[in-house]
Every structure is written in structure tokens, then in C-alpha cells.
Design brief:
The protein is α/β, with parallel strands linked by helices. The protein contains 17 helices and 18 strands. A hairpin with a 2-residue loop joins β2 and β3. α3 runs antiparallel to α17 and α5 runs parallel beside α6. The site of zinc ion has 4 residues, from loops.
Length: 480
């Protein structure tokens, strides 16, 4: 009897905890968003007074409110005055697991991503723990965006001890073995970061091609941009782009304020000599290579160039989610950098040049992708995608072009445009419902009314609950 009572108690508890999932069970009926403005992201249009029908996790119909009938038993969401668009992608995220004491809080972090409108995320540094997270989301055991997981980072001579999340590749032979191993382990892409020598790089590219796995990541000073463009690598951070603006590439021993060199004062000394007239030719070369680029501008500008005050960081909505131990580390790193910060004029020029490059790349039709690089420094997953979208807009991109970087472009890059990235009949019901129009002001992406993932509707209360659950896991002492 006692056992039975305990069983009932546990069951009731479980039911109330997972209430929003049961309430929205997608297989039992249709969900209808009624009289909403659809921003489909197929082209730069808004479809006003539309109904969107969702069943079994898919968009089953899309049409004018006056014409499209709503099934009798449908669960209706009043979309009047609201805007629905595809769920967002963050193409460059990590987990806190790589920092501090390597505590696995992936499940909580995934909730934060979802609560902020992410329905697909690429994790840009691999670990077997993340492959488990990817599986748990796919099997619907965990709530969160669909995950794509890059390999552990491919590095050359790596001087740092501790848990590395890295594949050490000192020779082409190391590289060949590492690519094959990562492909076998089920990683979605090969991620390159630091100090990779040219002959090792060439071996990575060649083997990845043979193994049919994409290569993403940094471009280091030992490789340089022309070789990466020739290899058609998908480039993160616009690494080595700025290098192409030096008076000549041998200038300052070829050291520009790019990649890891951003930490070196010596590299910052080159900033006054950067030649902006070289940007159009750089853009032409990138466009010709046909690659996708993830600028991660907000992370670079807010961390290394914009002197944001401690108080401003502390007031950010995501600050309270950063685990205490990691937060202490973050402040130490920030103080270390800012103690010897480069001159203001150089930092301002760096900001202006990064934005100019981003704008001209976009204007030339280079496919840009939104990546937050969270949880680096004080950026937390999910929250920071909105910062990155605003940074695209502040670089001069139209709100529509900015939105492409977090919807259609990444879906196309990942090869999943047939199911995600736009709002069209038959596609996955991964969507965000906003209270205000993001085409008028990109900051309106923050006005989330609901997130729909696989047809499950998370309303404002559910999203608040997800964030709170995450906060309790990440920072058990913090108030709700
Ligand atoms: Zn990163």
C-alpha cells in the first residue's frame, strides 16, 4: 500500500512537471495559429491575416484567414497582432562543460536555448557528452533545440594542460587518423581551431573530403585565408579576413589582429595600418569561394573592443545563469585582457572594420550565419543570439538580411532546408511567435510570445518555467 501511494505521488508529480508537454501532445489534434502575420523567410515578405495549421510536428496548411478553415477540435492560438517566423539557429555555441570543473549541465543549457527561440543549434566543439545530448533531444527525452555537434577541436601544438576537448594534430598522419576517428564517432563536422600547420591543414581537408564530412572553424596564421578559401572551409569568426587588409601579408611577420592574436598587443599595433580599400577584393574572393561565414561579431566586439562596464554585464538578463565558479574565472580573464587594453582608436577602428566587412559580405551575397560563441565570457546560450542579430543590423544589414543568418542560411548550409529554416507547408513546426515585428526593428526578436518546437507549443509561462529550471541547475543559490 505504502509503495502504491508513493507510486501515485511520484506519478502525479511527474504529470504536473511535464504538464506543458501533455497539454500540447501533437498527435492528438491540430494546433491552429489564427490571424497571424507570417514572416516565411522564403523571400522578403510578410503575409498578413494568415492561419497556420500544425499537426504531428509539421506545418500542414498555410493560408489566408478568410479562406483556410480551422478543424473543429483544433487547439487555437490567437495570432492577432503577432508575427510568426522560423525558429532560430545558433551556429556557434558551446556548453559550460568545457569550463570550470567540467560539470555537465547540458540539459539546463538546452532549456535556455529553447526558451530564447533557438530550435536548432550547432555545438562548435565536440565531446562524447554532447553526442549524448544530441541523442536525448532527438529521442525527445530532453527539451531543447535539435543539435549538430562538431568534432573536438583540431589543434596543432597545444600548450595548455587540463581537459582539452581537442584532437592533437602535429603531423598529417595525426590529422588523417583524427578525421577518420571523428567521422566514425558520429560527429557532424570537423572543427579546426588553433596552431594547425599548413601541411596538417591540407591533410584534414583531403581526408574530410574522402570521408564526406564538412570542415568548419578558425583559420590560423599558419594557414591564412587564401588556402582556406581554396579548401572551401566554412569559416568562423571571419578569421584572417582582417589579415588580408594589411599593406602586405608579410607585414608585422604576418601577424594581424585575428584568431588568437587578438590577445597580443603586438598584433593590435597593425590596426592603424589596415587598408579598407582592400575590403571589396577580399569580399570578391570570399564570394567566389561560395563558403558560409559565421562572424560571431557580438562576442568579439563586446569582449575585446567595446569597453562595456562591469555593471552593464551584470545587468544583462543572462548574467544570473552563469555558474558561480565559471563567473569568477570569466572576470579574471576579462581583467587580464583589459588591464593592457589596446588604444581606444584602434579598438574603434577594429569595430568599424568588422562591421564594414560584414555589411559588404552580405551585400555581395555571401551567406552569413548567426553564431553567438556562447557561453564565452558573459554570454549565455539563447539570450546571446539576439545580441548577434542586433549586431548584424548595426553593421547595416536590413532586419530581413539579419534574420536570414539565423533561419534560412544555416538550414541551407546544414542541408536541412527541405525541413527547416522557412515557414512552408510540410516543413517541421519549429517556429517563434513574436509580439512585435522584427522586420521593423531587429530587437523585436526578443519579444517572444511562444516557441514551437516539433509542434509543441511553449507559451510564456512554459518559457519562464524552462528558464527557472535551468537557473536552479546552473546556480542553485540564485533567487527565481
Ligand atoms: Zn567558439
Amino acid at each position: 500500500m505504502k509503495k502504491y501511494t508513493a507510486f501515485i505521488f511520484v506519478m502525479v508529480g511527474m504529470l504536473s512537471l511535464s504538464g506543458y508537454v501533455l497539454r500540447n501532445n501533437p498527435s492528438d489534434s491540430t494546433t491552429a495559429i489564427v490571424d497571424v502575420t507570417v514572416i516565411p523567410m522564403t523571400k522578403d515578405v510578410s503575409l498578413e491575416h494568415y492561419n497556420v495549421l500544425i499537426k504531428d510536428g509539421k506545418i500542414t496548411a498555410l493560408g489566408k484567414t478568410a479562406d483556410l478553415k480551422i478543424p473543429e477540435n483544433a487547439k487555437v492560438i490567437d495570432g492577432k497582432g503577432k508575427f510568426v517566423l522560423p525558429g532560430f539557429f545558433d551556429m556557434h555555441a558551446h556548453f559550460f562543460y568545457e569550463q570550470g570543473d567540467n560539470v555537465n549541465t547540458c540539459e539546463a543549457e538546452l532549456k535556455l536555448m529553447l526558451a530564447n527561440g533557438l530550435t536548432t543549434t550547432r555545438i562548435e566543439c565536440g565531446d562524447s557528452v554532447y553526442l549524448v545530448a544530441r541523442k536525448n533531444v532527438r529521442e525527445k527525452k530532453w527539451k531543447g533545440p535539435e543539435l549538430f555537434v562538431s568534432s573536438p577541436q583540431f589543434v596543432g601544438d597545444w600548450p595548455w594542460p587540463g581537459k582539452m576537448f581537442a584532437m592533437l594534430c602535429k603531423s598529417p598522419e595525426d590529422a588523417i587518423a583524427a578525421v577518420k576517428k571523428c567521422k566514425k564517432q558520429g560527429y557532424d563536422e570537423i572543427k579546426i581551431t588553433f596552431m594547425v600547420k599548413r601541411e596538417v591543414y591540407d591533410a584534414i581537408i583531403k581526408t574530410a573530403r574522402e570521408e564526406n564530412i564538412k570542415v568548419t572553424g578558425h583559420v590560423g596564421p599558419l594557414v591564412k585565408l587564401p588556402a582556406a578559401l581554396q579548401a572551401k572551409q566554412q569559416i568562423e569568426h571571419m578569421d584572417e579576413f582582417i589579415d588580408m587588409l594589411l599593406p602586405d601579408t608579410t607585414y608585422n611577420h604576418g601577424e594581424s589582429v585575428s584568431d588568437m592574436n587578438i590577445w597580443r598587443k603586438r598584433a593590435w599595433n597593425t590596426v592603424p595600418y589596415l587598408d579598407e580599400k582592400k575590403i571589396p577584393d577580399l569580399v570578391r574572393q570570399v564570394k567566389q569561394a561560395g563558403i558560409y561565414v559565421t562572424p560571431t561579431n557580438y562576442f568579439f566586439l563586446s569582449s575585446f573592443a567595446d569597453s562595456i562596464s562591469k555593471e552593464t554585464f551584470m545587468k544583462r538578463p543572462d548574467y544570473a545563469y552563469i555558474p558561480k565558479k565559471i563567473l569568477e574565472e570569466r572576470w579574471k580573464i576579462r581583467e587580464h585582457y583589459w588591464k593592457k587594453a589596446p588604444p581606444l582608436a584602434s579598438r574603434q577602428r577594429y569595430i568599424q572594420i568588422r562591421k564594414k566587412m560584414t555589411f559588404q559580405l552580405s551585400e555581395a551575397g555571401v551567406k552569413l550565419m548567426a553564431g553567438s560563441d556562447s557561453p564565452e565570457w558573459f554570454l549565455v546560450q539563447g539570450f546571446s543570439i539576439h545580441d548577434e542579430l542586433e549586431t548584424f543590423a548595426s553593421a547595416g544589414l536590413s532586419p530581413y538580411s539579419a534574420l536570414l543568418t539565423a533561419t534560412r542560411n544555416p538550414a541551407e548550409y546544414l542541408g536541412i532546408l527541405s525541413t527547416k529554416g522557412t515557414i512552408e507547408n510540410g516543413k517541421d513546426a519549429d517556429m517563434i511567435l513574436l509580439e512585435n515585428n522584427p522586420l521593423l526593428n531587429i530587437s523585436n526578436t526578443r519579444t517572444i510570445f511562444a516557441v514551437i518546437k516539433n509542434g509543441l507549443v511553449y507559451n510564456k509561462t512554459d518559457l519562464y518555467k524552462l528558464k527557472n529550471e535551468a537557473k536552479r541547475s546552473l546556480n542553485p543559490d540564485s533567487p527565481d
